[in-house]
């Protein structure tokens, strides 16, 4: 049964992940892939479609799709996601009044 095999495989990965020492260098590529997972999710369809419409089928097209999606995701992570996170963290440190100006009394005086 594929469901049972998948469950056993995932359980094995969880046990392995719990036994890996913190900072294991061989996990850095997986960590980087995790950083790119959301931009990859957002961009895989539009980038794939743009390449598929312009390049003939074959191994070169497959390589271009993989490379194009990965580069686009890395750029989005660096120039959109990271600055947005930093701005959100700055706003969160300022507190709710920095986001929404709430009057201190019903007349709106401060």
Reconstruct the topology from this structure:
Blueprint: H1 2-19, H2 28-52, H3 59-94, H4 96-99
Helix pairs in contact: 2-3
Descriptors for this entry?
110 residues, 4 helices, mainly alpha
Structure report:
It is a single chain. By secondary structure, the chain is an all-alpha fold. Helix 2 (28-52) crosses helix 3 (59-94). The protein is 75% helix and 0% strand. The chain is built from 4 helices and no strands. 4% of the residues are buried. The protein is extended and about 70 Å long. The chain has helices at residues 2-19, 28-52, 59-94, 96-99.
From the alpha-carbon coordinates, what is the Rg to the nearest angstrom? 22 Å
User: What fraction, in percent, of the residue positions are helical?
Assistant: over 70%
Terminus-to-terminus distance:
67 Å
Average pLDDT:
86
Number of helices: 4
Overall geometry: extended
Please tally the β strands and state the result: 0
- Sheet-strand content, in percent, reads under 5%
Give the SSE string.
HHHH
Low-confidence stretches: none
Structural class: mainly alpha
Largest sheet: none
Quick overview:
The protein has 110 residues and is mainly α.
């Amino acid at each position: 049964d594929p469901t049972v095999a998948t469950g056993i495989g995932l359980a094995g990965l969880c046990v392995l992940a719990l036994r890996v020492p913190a900072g294991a260098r061989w996990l850095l590529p997986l960590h980087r892939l995790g950083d790119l997972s959301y931009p990859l999710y957002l961009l895989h369809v539009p980038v794939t479609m743009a390449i598929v419409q312009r390049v003939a089928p074959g191994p070169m097209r497959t390589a271009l799709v993989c490379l194009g999606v990965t580069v686009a995701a890395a750029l989005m992570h660096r120039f959109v996601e990271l600055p947005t996170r930093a701005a959100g963290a700055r706003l969160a440190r300022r507190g709710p009044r920095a986001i929404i100006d709430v009057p201190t009394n019903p007349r709106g005086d401060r």
